[in-house]
Specification:
By secondary structure, the protein is mainly beta. The chain is 0% helix and 26% strand.
Length: 235
C-alpha cells in the first residue's frame, strides 16, 4: 500500500445532499425528498438538515474559504493515523480516505492526507473554517467511509453547537448511570444516550432528529437538531 496523496469520493449518509461550503458560510441543504410535516398543533416541523463539509480536495489541498493553522504541529510528537497495513476511518466521514487519528487530546478524528508525506489536515471544529496541520507517524492505507457515519457537529434548536466526542473520560448522569456522553456542547452540557448507540446518541426515528442534553447532574432535556454536519472530500 502507498501513502494517500488525495482522498477519493465514497458513499454518503442516506438521504444526504452534499455541499462543499466552508463552515464559515455554512449553507445548509434539506435532504432530497424531505418536506416539512405538520405537528399536532398545526405548526410545521422541518426535517433536520444534513450537511457535508468539504474542506479538503482530492489533491490534499484546502478548498476555498478554509485556512490552515500550523502552530500545533510537532513532528516530534506525531499523531497515530495507522500505517500502510491498517488505518481507521473518521466516524463522521461521508467519503473514503478521511482518517481518525490518536491521541484523543489532538482532536484529530477527521483528518485528510496531503501531497506532503505524513502531513495531515484535520478539522477540529466543524463550526470554524480552520484546518489544523499535524504530522502523522506513518504513511497510511486507504480506508472506506464507515457504513453508518455520525455527524461531527450538531446545531441544536436552542442555538447550541455540539462537537462529536473524541475519547476522554466522562462521567454519567446519576439518574442514568448506563448513559454515556456522545457530544460536548458549547453552552448546555453534553448529549447523552445509552451505551453502544448506533446513531451517536441521536434519535433519528423522525425526520426532525432529537438529542438528550444536560450536565453530569440535573435533568436531561430533549432538544431538536436543526442541522448535522458530516465531512467529505471536495471533487
Amino acid at each position: 500500500m502507498t501513502m494517500l496523496a488525495s482522498c477519493a469520493g465514497g458513499a454518503q449518509p442516506a438521504g444526504q445532499a452534499a455541499t462543499t461550503t466552508p463552515a464559515a458560510a455554512a449553507a445548509t441543504t434539506v435532504p432530497a425528498g424531505t418536506t416539512p410535516t405538520k405537528a399536532r398543533s398545526g405548526a410545521a416541523v422541518v426535517a433536520t438538515r444534513l450537511i457535508n463539509l468539504a474542506p479538503v480536495d482530492q489533491r490534499g489541498h484546502a478548498t476555498s474559504g478554509w485556512s490552515i493553522d500550523r502552530n500545533d504541529d510537532d513532528p516530534n510528537a506525531p499523531i497515530d493515523c495507522g500505517d500502510t497495513s491498517q488505518a481507521y476511518p473518521s466516524p463522521a466521514a461521508a467519503s473514503g480516505d478521511i482518517y481518525s487519528c490518536a491521541p484523543s487530546a489532538a482532536e484529530a478524528d477527521a483528518c485528510w492526507p496531503t501531497a506532503q508525506a505524513r502531513q495531515m489536515l484535520c478539522l477540529r471544529d466543524p463550526y470554524s473554517p480552520v484546518l489544523t496541520a499535524l504530522t502523522a507517524q506513518a504513511l497510511v492505507a486507504k480506508v472506506s467511509a464507515p457504513r453508518d457515519p455520525v455527524p461531527l457537529g450538531l446545531r441544536l434548536a436552542n442555538g447550541d453547537q455540539c462537537r462529536l466526542r473524541d475519547g476522554g473520560a466522562w462521567g454519567s448522569p446519576p439518574q442514568h448511570p448506563d448513559y454515556v456522553g456522545y457530544y460536548s456542547c458549547a453552552s448546555h452540557g453534553i448529549v447523552w444516550a445509552p451505551q453502544e448507540s448506533s446513531t451517536g446518541g441521536i434519535d433519528r426515528t423522525t425526520k426532525r432528529w432529537t438529542v438528550l442534553v444536560g450536565g453530569e447532574t440535573g435533568p436531561l432535556t430533549t432538544v431538536a437538531v436543526t442541522d448535522a454536519s458530516f465531512v467529505t472530500t471536495a471533487a
